[in-house]
C-alpha cells in the first residue's frame, strides 16, 4: 500500500493540469464545482432501508459489481482531490508554454482554493531564507538547499514537504514565507521571466517588502543562465512584457506595471554573476557564505534541562523592561558566586530574546577563548560583515573599530559573561560597552561580585543578584540528573536530606541558597544508587575533610574527585593546574592540551580521550571542540584543584602549586616529597624554591617555572640531577636569570622548554635521548648544537642564538621530526643533513643573515611550508621545484637569491612571497603564471592566494586575472605594464600593495569590489587612480609620493566614507582630507610631512584611536587634547618638535612611542596624562632631560629608553610599576 501511494503521488506531480499544455491553469483560480458535483453524486453511504433490503435479499452479481465499481471510482476521486492542492506551482515543470498568443481555456477542471479549508500548517519560523527559481534550475537549487541545511540554515523551498506539506494551501504559504524571510535568493534565467508566472509573482512580493519602511529583507539575485547585458536588453523586456500581459489577462494578481518596476529595481541591487569558468559549486559556496553572514544559525542553546529557567528568565526580563523604560543606560549587571547558573541563564536569555532582537543576540563568556575569538564571534553574530573577512581579522583595535561602526544601526542583545575582577577583563568589558549599539539594544553583564559592576560604573539600580533556585526546582534538578526511576521507588526523605546538603550560606551571614553545580555533582554521586535509598548517604555526609576550605561546595566536589581512579585524578589536576594556567606562548608550536596529556601520561590519544570522557560525564571538564584539543574547566573546579594541591597532613601529596612564594608549605618534615609528581611555580611562587632540595622529589614527572614579572635582581640556581623520572621541564622566566645543573641525568625527559636569560649546558641537552619537543631561546656563546642522539625529536624551535655557527645531527634517523624553526641565529652558516629530514612538514629559517646555501631539498616531499625570510646571504634553494606538497613559500629579504627554478609542479602552492629578492627575472614564477593561464584544464594552480614580488621587470598584470583565488598581492620596484587590466574575475582579492612601481593607470582596480586595502607608495609615474565610489568595501588607503600632482580625478572623501585607516602626505592630504566631515568612520591616521599639520584639526579627530606622525620638521608644539579616544601615539623624526601638551587625560592611551625627535624637551606628566599606559618607547630624544611621573602606572609593562639623556631614567619599584616586564636603558648603539 505504501508503494502504491508513492507512485500515485509521483504521477500527480507531473500531471498536465490544463490538458492543453497551458500553464495558466493554476490552483486557486477556477471553480471545482463540477468535480465536486460528480463526487457528491457518488453514493458513498447506503440508506438504512436499502441496507435492510440488502440483508434480506441476496445481491445479484451485477449489483455487486456495480457497487464495487462505484466505491472504486469514489476512492480514486477522493484520493485525487486530496492530492490536487499539492500539485506543484511551477507549471513549466509539468508542461510547455504554447507558442500561440491566444490562451485557450483549460479543458480539465481546477480546484478553487477558496473551497479548500484554511491551512492547518503553521509556517516554520526557521524559514528565514526563500529560494525563488524556475523549473530549469531545479537541480542547482536543490543542491543549494542541501548546502544551506548543512550550515544550519533552513530555506523555504517548494520541493520540500517542510515548506509545503501535503494537503496545504500553497499560495498562501509562499507569500507568508516571503513576508517572514530575511533573505530572498533569486536564481535568474530566461525561463524565470518567460516560462512561468510564479517566479515573478514571488520576486514582485519581495520587491514590495523591500520598499516598505523598516524592511528587513535582503534580496540576492544570481544571474545564472542569463547575463546582466541580456537582463538589461530592452528587446528582451518587450518579449517578457508581452508574455506577462497574456498571463495578466487570466490572473488578476499580475500587475504588469509593477513587474516593469521590478526590472528597474533589480538593476540597483548588488548581484552575483555566474562568470564563464566559475563552477556551480563555487557559485553555491558564494551564496551560502553571504546567507551565513546575513542569517544566524538556527542552533540554539539547549536549556530544556535547566530547572527554574523560565521563572528566572522572566525575573530578569522584567528587570530589563524596567531599565529600558526608566534609564538611558540600557545595561544591567547580574552577580553571584561561581557555579550558580549565571552563564546558563545568559544563554537561555539569548534564546528567549532571539525573536525580539531579530536574532542579533550574542553570548560571550570571558575566558572561554582569546579576546580575538570572542570579538570575532560578536561581529559575526551582531553585524553583517562577511565571515571570511572576520576569520582573517587579527587586530583587536580594528575589530572594536568594526564593532563601533557596523553595529550603530543594529538592535542587539549582548551578554558579557563571567567578567573577572582584574584590569584586563574590565578593560575588555569597557571596550564592548563603548560599542555604540543601535536604538533598543541591551547589554547584560554577569560577574561574581558587585565590585566588578561598580568598576564598570553600574549603580545599585542597574545591578542585582542572581535569583535563587526554589526548593522544588532543586528537587527536580537532583532527580533529573540521577537515574530515572518510578516515583513510588524514590525515598522522599532521602532526597530531601540530599538537597539540604546543597543549601549553602551566601556569605552574608543571613541568607542561603541552593547551589546548582553542587546539586548536579551530588546527583551524579547518587545516580549509582539505583533506588535512591539512604544507603550511601552516611558516607557522602562526611564530605568536608578540610575544615579550612573556603566554601562547603568543595566538600561535594571532593566526593566526586575521590570517586575517580587515580589516573583520572592526575589528568584532571594536570588540566586544572598546568594546562589551564600556562601561558600559550610556553607551549611548543603545534602542541595542544591533548598532545601534552598524552606525553606526560604516556598514553595514546584514544586512551586519553576515554579518560577525558569519564571526566566530562562527571562534570569536571568540557570538550570545547576538536575532540578535546581544547578543554574547558569550570572556575570552581580550578579553585578546588588549587586547594587540593595545598599540603595536607593526613594524606600523600601528589602536587605542588605555588603562586604566593610562601616557603613554609614546602619546608615541613616527613617523607611526603616522595609522593609528589607535579611541581609548578608561577611568578612570586619561585621564592618557594629557595633552599629546597629537588633531589628529594624522586618521583617528579613535571616541573614548571613561569615568571612573567620583572625581577632584575634575582637569580635562581636549580640542581635537577635527582629528577630521573622527569618528563616535562618548562622554564620560562623572561624577567629573571635561571641556571640549571644535572640536565644529563634527565634520561626520561620528553619535553624541554628553556626561555630564560640563563644558559643551560647544551652538551647535556645533547644526551637527552628521549627528547621529543625542544624549544630554546636566548643562549649566548654557543657555536655548535648537536642533535645526533636525539632521534625521537618531533618539534624543534631555536631562537636568538647569536653565536651559533652550525647545527649537527640532522639525518634520516630523525623520522619523527615534523617542524623545525631556527630564528635570529645571525652567525649560522650551515645545516648539514637538512636534506634528509624526509618527514619534515614545516621548515623556517628566519633572520639567519650569514647562511649562504642549503642542501638540496628535493627529497622533502612532505614539506608544506617553507619560510627563508631575511636570510640575506642565501644564494639558492636547490630542489625547490620538487616540493610537490608545498603550500606556502616565502623568501622575503633574501637579497642574493638567484632566479627561482621552474615551479610548474607546485600545484598546491597557496602563498608565494619573494619580496626584496634582488633578481632581474623569475622564470619559475613566469611559468607558474603561464600555466595558470591555461585554466580550467589545469585549474589546480588556481589555489594560489598570496603573491609578494619585487624587482619584476616584465608583464605581470596580464597573468594576474587568471588566479581567481588570489587574496593578497604586493608588488615592489616592478615595471613592464602601464595600466592595470579589468580585474573583475578576482572576486577574493582584498589587498593590493604597490611600492615604487612604474604603473600609470590603476583604473582596472575599480572592478575589484572585494578590495579592502589599497597601498600606493612612491609610484611616480601614476596618472590615474581607481574609481573609489565602486570600492565600497575599502577600509585602508595609503597614498604617498613626490609626484602625486600628476594624478587627475582625485577621489573625494565622500567616495571613501567606509575608510577606517588613512595614510597621506603633504600632497595627498590637500587632495583628500579637506572634505574631512565624510571621514567620520576613520580610526587610524598616518601623516607624513609638516604640510599635514592642518589635518590634526579635522572634526572627526575625536574618533581617532591610532595616530602616527612622521617628518613634521617645522612643528614645535603638538597638543593632543582633541583626541580623547587615542589608544596609540607614534611620533617619528619630528626634528623641530619641542613640546608635547595635553590638557585632558588620555585615559585610553596604552602605547606612546617617540623616536628621533631630537629637539624634544618637554612631555606631560605620565601618570596623570596617560594613566593606563602599557608601553613607553623613547629613542634618540637627546634633548629630553626630565620626565615627570608623579604617581604609579599600574598597567605599565614595557619601558625602553634608548639613546636618551641618562637623567630621564625612571625610578623603578614594584609599587610604582607592578606589572613591569621589560625595562631597557641604553645608548643608540646598544
UniProtKB/TrEMBL annotation:
The chain crosses the membrane at residues 65-87. Residues 125-266 form the TIR domain. InterPro entries: Disease_R_plants, LRR_dom_sf, NB-ARC, P-loop_NTPase, TIR_dom, Toll_tir_struct_dom_sf. Residues 1-30 are annotated as: Disordered. Pfam families: NB-ARC (PF00931), TIR_2 (PF13676). Keywords: Membrane, Transmembrane, Transmembrane helix. The keyword NADP does not apply. One of its GO terms (biological process) is signal transduction. GO terms for molecular function: ADP binding. SUPFAM superfamilies: L domain-like, P-loop containing nucleoside triphosphate hydrolases, Toll/Interleukin receptor TIR domain. This is TIR domain-containing protein.
Amino acid at each position: 500500500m505504501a508503494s502504491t501511494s508513492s507512485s500515485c503521488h509521483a504521477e500527480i506531480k507531473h500531471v498536465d493540469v490544463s490538458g492543453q499544455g497551458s500553464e495558466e491553469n493554476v490552483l486557486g483560480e477556477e471553480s471545482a464545482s463540477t468535480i465536486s458535483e460528480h463526487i457528491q453524486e457518488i453514493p458513498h453511504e447506503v440508506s438504512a432501508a436499502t441496507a435492510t433490503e440488502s440483508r434480506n435479499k441476496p445481491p445479484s452479481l451485477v449489483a455487486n459489481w456495480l457497487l464495487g465499481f462505484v466505491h472504486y471510482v469514489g476512492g480514486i476521486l477522493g484520493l485525487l482531490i486530496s492530492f490536487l492542492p499539492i500539485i506543484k506551482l511551477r507549471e513549466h515543470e509539468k508542461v510547455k508554454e504554447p507558442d500561440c498568443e491566444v490562451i485557450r481555456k483549460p479543458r480539465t477542471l481546477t480546484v478553487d482554493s477558496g473551497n479548500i479549508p484554511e491551512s492547518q500548517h503553521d509556517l516554520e519560523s526557521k524559514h528565514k531564507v526563500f529560494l525563488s527559481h524556475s523549473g530549469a534550475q531545479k537541480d542547482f537549487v536543490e543542491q543549494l538547499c542541501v548546502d544551506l541545511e548543512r550550515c544550519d540554515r533552513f530555506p523555504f523551498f517548494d520541493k520540500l514537504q517542510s515548506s509545503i506539506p501535503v494537503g496545504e494551501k500553497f499560495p498562501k504559504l509562499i507569500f507568508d514565507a516571503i513576508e517572514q524571510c530575511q533573505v530572498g535568493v533569486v536564481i535568474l534565467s530566461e525561463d524565470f521571466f518567460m516560462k512561468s508566472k510564479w517566479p515573478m509573482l514571488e520576486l514582485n512580493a519581495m520587491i514590495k517588502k523591500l520598499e516598505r519602511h523598516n524592511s528587513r529583507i535582503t534580496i540576492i539575485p544570481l544571474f545564472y543562465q542569463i547575463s546582466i547585458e541580456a537582463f538589461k536588453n530592452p528587446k528582451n523586456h518587450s518579449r517578457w512584457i508581452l508574455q506577462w500581459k497574456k498571463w495578466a489577462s487570466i490572473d488578476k494578481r499580475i500587475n504588469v506595471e509593477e513587474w516593469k518596476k521590478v526590472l528597474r529595481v533589480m538593476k540597483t541591487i548588488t548581484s552575483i554573476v555566474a562568470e564563464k569558468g566559475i563552477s556551480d559549486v563555487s557559485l553555491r559556496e558564494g551564496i551560502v557564505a553571504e546567507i551565513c553572514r546575513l542569517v544566524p544559525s538556527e542552533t540554539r542553546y539547549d536549556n530544556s534541562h535547566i530547572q527554574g529557567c523560565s521563572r528566572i528568565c522572566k525575573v530578569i526580563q522584567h528587570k530589563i523592561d524596567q531599565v529600558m523604560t526608566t534609564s538611558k543606560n540600557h545595561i544591567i549587571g547580574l552577580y553571584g558566586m561561581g557555579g550558580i547558573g549565571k552563564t546558563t541563564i545568559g544563554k537561555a536569555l539569548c534564546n528567549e530574546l532571539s525573536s525580539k532582537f531579530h536574532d542579533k543576540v550574542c553570548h560571550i563568556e570571558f575566558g572561554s577563548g582569546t579576546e580575538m575569538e570572542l570579538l570575532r564571534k560578536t561581529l559575526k553574530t551582531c553585524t553583517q560583515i562577511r565571515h571570511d573577512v572576520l576569520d582573517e581579522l587579527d587586530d583587536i583595535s580594528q575589530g572594536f573599530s568594526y564593532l563601533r561602526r557596523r553595529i550603530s544601526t543594529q538592535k542587539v542583545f549582548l551578554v558579557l559573561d563571567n567578567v573577572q575582577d582584574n584590569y584586563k577583563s574590565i578593560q575588555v568589558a569597557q571596550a564592548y560597552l563603548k560599542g555604540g549599539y543601535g536604538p533598543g539594544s541591551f547589554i547584560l553583564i554577569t560577574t561574581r561580585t558587585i565590585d566588578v559592576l561598580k568598576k564598570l560604573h553600574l549603580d545599585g539600580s542597574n545591578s542585582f543578584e542572581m535569583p535563587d533556585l526554589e526548593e522544588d526546582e532543586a528537587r527536580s534538578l537532583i532527580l533529573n540528573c540521577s537515574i530515572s526511576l518510578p516515583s513510588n521507588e524514590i525515598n522522599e526523605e532521602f532526597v530531601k536530606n540530599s538537597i539540604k546538603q546543597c543549601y549553602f550560606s551566601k556569605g552574608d551571614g543571613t541568607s542561603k541558597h541552593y547551589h546548582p553545580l553542587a546539586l548536579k555533582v551530588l546527583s551524579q554521586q547518587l545516580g549509582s544508587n539505583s533506588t535512591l535509598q539512604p544507603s550511601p548517604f552516611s558516607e557522602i555526609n562526611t564530605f568536608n575533610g578540610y575544615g579550612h576550605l573556603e566554601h562547603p561546595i568543595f566538600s561535594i566536589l571532593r566526593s566526586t574527585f575521590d570517586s575517580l581512579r587515580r589516573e583520572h585524578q592526575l589528568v584532571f589536576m594536570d588540566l586544572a593546574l598546568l594546562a589551564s594556567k600556562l601561558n600559550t606562548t610556553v607551549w611548543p608550536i603545534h602542541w595542544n592540551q591533548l598532545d601534552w596529556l598524552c606525553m606526560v601520561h604516556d598514553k595514546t590519544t584514544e586512551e586519553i580521550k576515554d579518560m577525558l570522557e569519564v571526566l566530562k560525564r562527571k562534570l569536571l571538564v568540557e570538550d570545547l571542540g576538536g575532540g578535546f584539543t581544547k578543554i574547558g574547566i569550570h572556575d570552581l573546579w580550578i579553585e578546588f584543584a588549587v586547594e587540593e594541591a595545598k599540603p595536607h597532613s593526613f594524606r600523600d601529596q601528589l602536587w605542588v602549586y605555588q603562586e604566593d612564594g610562601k616557603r613554609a608549605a614546602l619546608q615541613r618534615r616527613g617523607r611526603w616529597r616522595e609522593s609528589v609528581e607535579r611541581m609548578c611555580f608561577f611568578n612570586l611562587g619561585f621564592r618557594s624554591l629557595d633552599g629546597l632540595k629537588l633531589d628529594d622529589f624522586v618521583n617528579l614527572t613535571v616541573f614548571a617555572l613561569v615568571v612573567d614579572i620583572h625581577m632584575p635582581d634575582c637569580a635562581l640556581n636549580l640542581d635537577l640531577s635527582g629528577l630521573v623520572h622527569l618528563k616535562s621541564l618548562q622554564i620560562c622566566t623572561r624577567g629573571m636569570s635561571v641556571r640549571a645543573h644535572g640536565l644529563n641525568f634527565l634520561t626520561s625527559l620528553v619535553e624541554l622548554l628553556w626561555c630564560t636569560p640563563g644558559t643551560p649546558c647544551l652538551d647535556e641537552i645533547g644526551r637527552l635521548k628521549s627528547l621529543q619537543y625542544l624549544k630554546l631561546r636566548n643562549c649566548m656563546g654557543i657555536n655548535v648544537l648537536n642533535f645526533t642522539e636525539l632521534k625521537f625529536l618531533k618539534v624543534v624551535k631555536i631562537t636568538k642564538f647569536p653565536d651559533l655557527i652550525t647545527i649537527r645531527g640532522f639525518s634520516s634517523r630523525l623520522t619523527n621530526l615534523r617542524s623545525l624553526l631556527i630564528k635570529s641565529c645571525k652567525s649560522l652558516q650551515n645545516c648539514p643533513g637538512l636534506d634528509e629530514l624526509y618527514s619534515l612538514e614545516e621548515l623556517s629559517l628566519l633572520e639567519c643573515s650569514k647562511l649562504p646555501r642549503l642542501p638540496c631539498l628535493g627529497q622533502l616531499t612532505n614539506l608544506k611550508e617553507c619560510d627563508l625570510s631575511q636570510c640575506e646571504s642565501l644564494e639558492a634553494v636547490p630542489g625547490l621545484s620538487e616540493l610537490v606538497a608545498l603550500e606556502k613559500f616565502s623568501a622575503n629579504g633574501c637579497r642574493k637569491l638567484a632566479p627561482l627554478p621552474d615551479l610548474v609542479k607546485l600545484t598546491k602552492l597557496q602563498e608565494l612571497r619573494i619580496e626584496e629578492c634582488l633578481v632581474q627575472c623569475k622564470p619559475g614564477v613566469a611559468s607558474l603564471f603561464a600555466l595558470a593561464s591555461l585554466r580550467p584544464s589545469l585549474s589546480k594552480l588556481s589555489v594560489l592566494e598570496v603573491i609578494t614580488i619585487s624587482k619584476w621587470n616584465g608583464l605581470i598584470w596580464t597573468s594576474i586575472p587568471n588566479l581567481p583565488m588570489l587574496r593578497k598581492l604586493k608588488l615592489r620596484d616592478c615595471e613592464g605594464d602601464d595600466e592595470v587590466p579589468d580585474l573583475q574575475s578576482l572576486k577574493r582579492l582584498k589587498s593590493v600593495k604597490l611600492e615604487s612601481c612604474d604603473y600609470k593607470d590603476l583604473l582596472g582596480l575599480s572592478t575589484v569590489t572585494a578590495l579592502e586595502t589599497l597601498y600606493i607608495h612612491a609610484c611616480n609615474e601614476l596618472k590615474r587612480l581607481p574609481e573609489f565610489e565602486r570600492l565600497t568595501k575599502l577600509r585602508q588607503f595609503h597614498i604617498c609620493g613626490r609626484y602625486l600632482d600628476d594624478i587627475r580625478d582625485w577621489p573625494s572623501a565622500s567616495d571613501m566614507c567606509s575608510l577606517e585607516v588613512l595614510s597621506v602626505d603633504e600632497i595627498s592630504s590637500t587632495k583628500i582630507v579637506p572634505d574631512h566631515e565624510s571621514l567620520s568612520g576613520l580610526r587610524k591616521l598616518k601623516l607624513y610631512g609638516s604640510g599635514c599639520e592642518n589635518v590634526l584639526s579635522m572634526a572627526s579627530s575625536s574618533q581617532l584611536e591610532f595616530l602616527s606622525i612622521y617628518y613634521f620638521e617645522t612643528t614645535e608644539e603638538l597638543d593632543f587634547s582633541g583626541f580623547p579616544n587615542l589608544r596609540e601615539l607614534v611620533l617619528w623624526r619630528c626634528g623641530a618638535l619641542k613640546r608635547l601638551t595635553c590638557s585632558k587625560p588620555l585615559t585610553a592611551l596604552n602605547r606612546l612611542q617617540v623616536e628621533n625627535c631630537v629637539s624634544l624637551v618637554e612631555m606631560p606628566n605620565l601618570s596623570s596624562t596617560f594613566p593606563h599606559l602599557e608601553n613607553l618607547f623613547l629613542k634618540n630624544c637627546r634633548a629630553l632631560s626630565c620626565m615627570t611621573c608623579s604617581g604609579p602606572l599600574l598597567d605599565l609593562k614595557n619601558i625602553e629608553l634608548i639613546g636618551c639623556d641618562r637623567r630621564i631614567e625612571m625610578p623603578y619599584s614594584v609599587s610604582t610599576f607592578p606589572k613591569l616586564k621589560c625595562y631597557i636603558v641604553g645608548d643608540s648603539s646598544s
